[in-house]
Design brief:
Layout (H helix, E strand, L loop, with lengths): L1 H25 L6 E6 L5 E5 L5 E5 L2 H28 L3 H4 L3 H11 L3 H11 L2 H19 L6 H5 L9 H15 L5 H21 L43 E7 L10 E9 L7 E7 L6 E7 L6 E5 L3 E7 L5 E6 L8 E2 L6 E2 L1 E7 L7 E7 L5 E4 L5 E6 L10 H8 L3 H10 L5 E7 L4 E6 L3 E4 L7 E2 L6 E5 L7 E3 L5 E4 L7 H7 L8 H11 L6 H8 L8 H12 L5 H4 L2 H5 L10 H22 L15 H10 L12 H19 L7 H4 L16 H4 L16 E2 L2 E3 L2 E4 L8 E3 L17 H6 L12 E8 L1
Parallel strand pairs: 1-28, 3-6, 10-20
Antiparallel strand pairs: 2-3, 2-28, 4-5, 4-23, 5-25, 5-26, 6-7, 7-8, 8-9, 9-17, 10-16, 11-12, 13-14, 15-16, 17-18, 18-22, 19-21, 24-25, 26-27
Length: about 775
């Protein structure tokens, strides 16, 4: 029985493997020939270059949307499915009752984004709705025309569900969730820290900015005073990680025509996101030769949506960075005495609206999740005393999504036109950097900006009496703009851009520390003429300017502790660290580890938390207070649990030495061993063996979070480009991962190594390698 049982299992495995291999072979996208596509008004010609980058040529924008949907489905449907499911809280319906997946679903269901997406589609202008409908139809025809289902579904024993119009809106909501603080966690943790630390210590440890700020308008923030004492001494400290983690953000900058040889503006952009296989973006060139919809735009599209996100259209080039303006506020709901389930509002008591969301994981039982909604937004937290916290978030607005920005920028003919489009757009709020053929450049916020009154939005507050809240969104003429500064340079890197009244209007949603932005600014002022190659040199800048302070401090501390043989062995690598986040640098990793250990122990001692809070943006500006404390060493502020400042430095150095020992010695403690690419297919997390089929070889990469070349495990520049509008043939482009999601595509992973090495490749698609014609079908 055992012999026949083993043989039977082996036979089943062989059959399963064979079925998977057959499905993999027949599910490849169609590259050549002619196909009928229902709904087309005229043929669409699709030529792909050797890297699989398509040029779509058609007669109308709706036809291009339909054809783009066809391509997205053929090459990226599983990615699209994950995007919509992530936003709607339906991941477990595909991946099963995995603990972390269920938690994501529960957190996302609070926002009821599938319901909101349906409302958005209903309320869209007719022309925009028509584009989404055409795209949706193209997606479903592209999926249906595959001979086999995308290979990931065969591994999951699942079948892909059709695409719906609201799924395209969910893809946009997914970017809101990826880029913003959807539950006002930063505000809520800020309030907890204020309670523990008091106002003086809170202002000092969590400042609004530092001396490293590099705002375009030159504004600076006042430096907080040193507190006179550490509050709440004697508490038991648990280990706290104050590091906010990698900044979901980007770099984008531009120079005006006065600084280029051809007189046109030059725009550079690299958006920093999680990096996986196949990759966030899908490259494309969209062309309509003539007529009222004539266009020729090249850049990146987001699978699941029908338009270019960033790129150049021959007249205007544009790119984004995450703005970190304040788009979500925590609202304290005041209870109504004797009426559970009610809360106070300016119009009197109201009932919380309770909705049951049903979460049904694959291979598991359905679960009910009760969501409570207020007039300001859903309840996201209930405190120990029963107080409920709701969130007011711009993504909950009835018009949170439209295609005005994406479709408008495809045809914008000037910087002024692009700014007007940005202020009418509804999408995740971003820094927009734009330049045109006349040499103009500008920065503004694309998307809506809350019009607050009575609050700056930085802490949870009650809005019950009507003295605090939002008066809708700022009108376009009040959204800050910087246009053609005298120095002809615009730069953004997720840090504060403006000060004064403009800063007050935008709020602070967790701006990044200004060191990276300042390094870009200084790179732009280091020359007075620019080419795309000059832009690439800034994007690949891995100099550790922010950490130079820490190298000096660590080296001084090591020199004073030569009696400790373990610490003495670190002196040479730290002294000769090379001042770059280089793959082979031991010294860089040592210095970085020392900074993190010092910061972690310092904030842990001050906060005295019983548990580790989730990462958030509240500690993004810690570089300022850390430097002051390490250099001034005020006796009154020695952290609880340490005899003096030298004891804290000892503890940080010992922590680093322990890390070195654990790694196998200093020679093995290179930055490349820590900063591995980890660019993987999402399914390798639950099915590791498929990595041999889907994932590129692992490698260490230069760069880090505090310099222009942002790079970390599974994180970094999701694309890089620099381009002058009208001179796209002179630009370059990089993208990690793969243009296609199918491992047997002839161009699978093409271009990935160029991205890893920083090797420039053309912005425009190359000569045609494959040609596919989509014909109008019945």
């Amino acid at each position: 029985m055992l012999k026949y049982g083993v043989a039977g299992i082996g036979g089943v495995l062989v059959l399963a493997a064979g079925a998977f291999a057959v499905n993999l072979a027949v599910s490849k996208p169609t590259l050549e020939g002619a196909l009928a596509l229902k709904g087309l008004m005229a043929p669409v010609a699709i030529t792909r270059d050797a890297g699989g980058v398509p040029t779509l040529e058609g007669a109308s924008r709706a036809d291009l949307a339909r054809a783009l949907g066809f391509l997205h489905a053929q090459e990226r449907y599983f990615q699209m499915d994950l995007i919509r499911r992530s936003a709607s809280g339906e991941l477990s319906g595909l991946l099963g009752p995995i603990g972390p997946v269920l938690e994501i679903d529960k957190a996302r269901r609070i926002h009821r984004l599938r319901h909101r997406a349906g409302q958005v589609v209903t309320n869209l202008p007719a022309d925009q709705k028509a584009i989404i409908v055409a795209y949706t139809d193209g997606v479903n025809q592209g999926l249906a025309s595959l001979t086999g289902r995308p290979f990931e579904y065969s591994l999951l024993f699942a079948s892909p569900l059709p695409w719906a119009a609201e799924d395209t809106i969910l893809a946009a909501y997914a970017m809101y969730l990826d880029l913003q603080d959807e539950d006002a966690l930063t505000d809520r943790i800020r309030a907890q820290n204020l309670q523990r630390l008091g106002p003086d210590m809170m202002d000092f440890l969590y400042p609004r900015g530092t001396a490293l700020d590099a705002a375009i308008d030159g504004s600076v923030t006042p430096e907080p005073a040193l507190p006179s004492a550490v509050p709440m001494q004697g508490r038991k400290a648990a280990l706290v990680d104050p590091d906010p983690g990698p900044t979901i953000g980007s770099n984008a900058w531009g120079v005006g025509g006065a600084l280029t040889e051809n007189g046109a503006a030059l725009v550079a952009d690299d958006m920093h996101l999680g990096i996986a296989i196949p990759g966030t973006w899908y490259r494309a060139r969209l062309r309509i030769a003539s007529g009222p919809e004539a266009m020729d735009a090249t850049g990146v599209t987001l699978p699941g949506t029908p338009a270019l996100v960033a790129g150049s259209n021959g007249k205007v080039a544009w790119g984004y960075t995450n703005s970190y303006i304040d788009t979500a506020d925590a609202v304290i709901l005041e209870p109504v005495s004797g009426a559970p389930g009610q809360y106070q509002t300016p119009d009197g008591p109201k009932d919380l609206i309770r909705t049951t969301e049903k979460i049904c994981p694959a291979w598991g039982d359905c679960q009910d999740l009760v969501v409570e909604d207020s007039i300001w937004g859903p309840v996201v937290d209930t405190l120990s005393d029963g107080t409920k916290i709701a969130v007011r978030w711009t993504a909950h607005e009835a018009d949170a999504i439209n295609l005005t920005g994406l479709l408008g920028l495809e045809r914008a003919d000037s910087v002024d036109a692009a700014i007007a489009i940005a202020h009418a757009a509804r999408q995740p709020q971003q820094n927009l950097v734009v330049g045109d053929t006349a040499g103009n450049i500008a920065w503004t916020i694309i998307g809506s900006v809350p019009a607050r009154f009575g609050t700056d939005g930085s802490l949870p507050s009650s809005w019950a009496d009507g003295t605090r809240g939002w008066n809708g969104m700022l009108p376009p003429d009040q959204v800050p703009v910087i246009r053609n500064p005298d120095h002809h340079r615009i730069w953004t890197a997720n840090a504060r851009i403006v000060g004064g009244d403009a800063y007050a209007k935008l709020g602070d949603g967790g701006y990044d520390m200004g060191g990276r932005q300042g390094q870009i600014r200084d790179g732009l002022f280091a020359r007075d003429r620019f080419t795309p190659a000059d832009m690439l040199s800034i994007q690949l800048d891995d100099r550790a300017l922010v950490l130079s302070f820490w190298q000096e401090q660590m080296l001084g501390a090591l020199n004073a502790r030569q009696g400790d043989t373990r610490l003495a062995a670190l002196t040479g690598p730290v002294r000769d660290w090379g001042a770059r986040a280089a793959v082979d640098s031991v010294g860089y990793r040592l210095v970085r580890a020392f900074r993190l250990a010092f910061s972690q122990k310092l904030y842990s001692a001050y906060l005295g938390l019983e548990g580790t809070p989730p990462r958030n943006r509240s500690a993004a500006q810690q570089e300022g207070p850390l430097r002051r404390l390490l250099t001034e060493k005020p006796e009154a502020l020695v952290p609880p649990g340490y005899k003096d400042w030298e004891a804290l430095i000892d503890a940080a150095l010992i922590d680093v030495a322990d890390q070195v020992d654990k790694a196998g010695g200093a020679a093995a403690f290179t930055w490349g061993a820590r900063n591995v690419a980890e660019v993987r297919h999402p399914l390798t997390r639950i099915l590791p063996p498929i990595g041999w089929l889907t994932d590129p070889p692992e490698q260490g990469l230069p760069g880090d979070s505090m310099m222009p070349r942002v790079q970390g495990p599974g994180f970094g520049a999701s694309q890089r480009f620099a381009v002058s509008p009208g001179r796209e043939g002179e630009g370059y482009f990089h993208m990690p991962g793969s243009q296609s999601g199918h491992p047997l595509s002839p161009y699978y992973l093409t271009g990935h190594q160029d991205w890893a090495e920083g090797k420039p490749t053309p912005f425009l698609p190359g000569s045609a390698r494959w040609t596919l014609t989509l014909q109008p079908g019945a």
